[in-house]
């Protein structure tokens, strides 16, 4: 009969040491109590005679354990409040360099997956060569079989990077005729726009220094400065005007994409905004003559940027200088309210020395030129809300229109009753509360821009009063054209 030795190995030498071979009622000692186990653990734990990799592994485990204990200690001190702020890595640190390198490689990979100009030209040729002509309209169209065939041809000629545009879901996005065909032009424009927006996002992400998905003013200006050589209508811009142009152009993005005025614009909002589309319209060279008025309608055109000038050489505007804007048709009470709500008070000097800086002036112009938008109307409503209560009363309307009425009479127009205008405004808005008009009421009535013009600008009230004649003149001009 064999007996078990102290090290737990069968004395017979066959290596069998199992609970089944042990006599009934005999228990095998735990591994931690065996001498060879204790000696091995002591040897490994000491780190003596270990290779460099093993030592590195032990050191890594020690560091990670210390980090884990430190986090546990901080969590215990913080209590039940979760952490909502993560400190950004310091500039020049290893974490910062690794983050920057990872972003660079990622953006480079995404850029390589984009179609270039030659690829887009090849796709357009392929679409035209494999489509069918609609007998009724003459439009070039393709059904789903043609769509799949073109996908195969484009993949062979261009590569796999064009394959994602030829998915069944993309085909279903477009309007189909009775035969289930889609026009090739809208599909091609969709591909071009997708490529353009993706490239814009890559370019903006490269300028995003802290990689938080937002652009600060100087980063937005740098993006616009990089676009100028590629925009046909801006190539002849004087060099000395480039910096001022970038400030003017960037301000519109922040007016519409930074509603809380935090000083940074979300890249996603910028890409989806109408501002970027308006800027990209300057890519195409216009063969027809464009009047100054038509060019001024685009905020990003050179004509529009040059008309926005500061009459004060010190870079700011006083109340008196602002009153001269729009040929002096704006009311004094509105100018006062603009300074109260949208101009910062100077730390030096009294309240009368307060002046409007260039960025505030750009916001002012943008609000007046975009009164029908939610952003423009929000800006103006703060000025109309004389008591800062979040709504307008009949007394507010009377006070606001009193200055318009005075300019109206000084202009030689007929006498009118302020109460009648007030009642007309109430009928136009139809507020949820019959005693007060809120910002949401002005936005929902779809006439908020017109009402704001009537209350701040005598020219705006004149346009409303003569709307029928103006509409008739527009119709006559369209018929003559």
From TrEMBL:
The keyword Calcium applies. Keywords: Calcium, Cytoplasm. The keyword Nuclease does not apply. One of its GO terms (cellular component) is cytoplasm. Its main location: cytoplasm. SUPFAM superfamilies: EF-hand. Residues 1-28 are annotated as: Disordered. Residues 195-230, 307-332, 372-407 form the EF-hand domain. It is found in: Cytoplasm. InterPro entries: EF-hand-dom_pair (IPR011992), EF_Hand_1_Ca_BS (IPR018247), EF_hand_dom (IPR002048), PPP2R3C (IPR039865). This is EF-hand domain-containing protein. It comes from Urochloa decumbens.
């Amino acid at each position: 009969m064999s007996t078990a030795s102290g090290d737990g190995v069968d004395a017979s030498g066959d290596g069998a040491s199992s609970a089944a071979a042990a006599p009934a009622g005999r228990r095998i000692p735990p591994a931690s109590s065996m001498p060879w186990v204790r000696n091995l653990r002591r040897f490994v734990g000491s780190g003596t005679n270990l290779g460099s990799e093993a030592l590195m592994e032990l050191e890594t485990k020690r560091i990670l354990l210390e980090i884990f204990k430190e986090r546990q200690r901080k969590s215990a001190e913080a209590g039940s409040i979760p952490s909502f702020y993560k400190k950004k890595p310091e500039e020049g640190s290893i974490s910062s360099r690794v983050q920057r390198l990872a972003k660079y490689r990622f953006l480079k990979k995404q850029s390589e997956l984009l179609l270039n100009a030659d690829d887009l030209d090849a796709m357009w040729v392929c679409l035209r060569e494999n489509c069918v002509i609609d007998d009724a309209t003459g439009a070039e169209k393709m059904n789903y079989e043609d769509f799949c065939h073109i996908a195969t041809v484009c993949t062979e000629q261009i590569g796999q990077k064009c394959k994602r545009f030829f998915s069944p879901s993309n085909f279903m996005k477009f309007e189909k005729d009775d035969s289930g065909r889609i026009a090739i032009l809208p599909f091609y424009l969709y591909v071009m726009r997708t490529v353009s927006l993706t490239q814009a996002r890559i370019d903006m992400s490269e300028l995003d220094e802290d990689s938080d998905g937002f652009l600060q003013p100087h980063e937005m200006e740098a993006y616009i400065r990089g676009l100028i050589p590629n925009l046909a209508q801006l190539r002849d811009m004087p060099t000395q005007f480039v910096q001022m142009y970038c400030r003017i152009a960037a301000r519109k993005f922040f007016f519409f994409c930074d509603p809380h005025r935090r000083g940074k614009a979300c890249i996603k909002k910028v890409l989806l905004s109408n501002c970027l589309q308006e800027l990209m319209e300057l890519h195409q060279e216009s063969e027809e003559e464009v009047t100054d008025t038509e060019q001024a309608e685009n905020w990003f055109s050179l004509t529009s940027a040059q008309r926005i000038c500061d009459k004060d050489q010190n870079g700011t505007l006083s109340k008196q200088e602002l009153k001269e804007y729009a040929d002096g048709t704006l009311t004094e009470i509105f100018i006062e309210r603009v300074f109260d709500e949208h101009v910062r008070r100077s730390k030096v000097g009294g309240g009368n020395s307060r002046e409007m800086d260039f960025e505030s002036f750009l916001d002012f112009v943008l609000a007046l030129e975009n009164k029908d938008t939610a952003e423009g109307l929000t800006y103006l409503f703060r000025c109309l809300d004389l008591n800062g209560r979040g709504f307008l009363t009949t007394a507010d309307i009377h006070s606001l229109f009193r200055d318009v009425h005075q300019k109206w009479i000084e202009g030689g127009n007929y006498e009118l009753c302020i109460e009648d205008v007030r009642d007309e405004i109430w009928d136009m808005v139809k507020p949820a509360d019959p005693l007060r008009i809120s910002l949401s009421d002005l936005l929902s009535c779809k006439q908020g821009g017109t009402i704001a013009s009537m209350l701040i600008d005598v020219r705006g009230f004149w346009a409303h009063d003569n709307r029928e004649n103006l509409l008739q003149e527009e119709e006559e001009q369209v018929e003559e054209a």
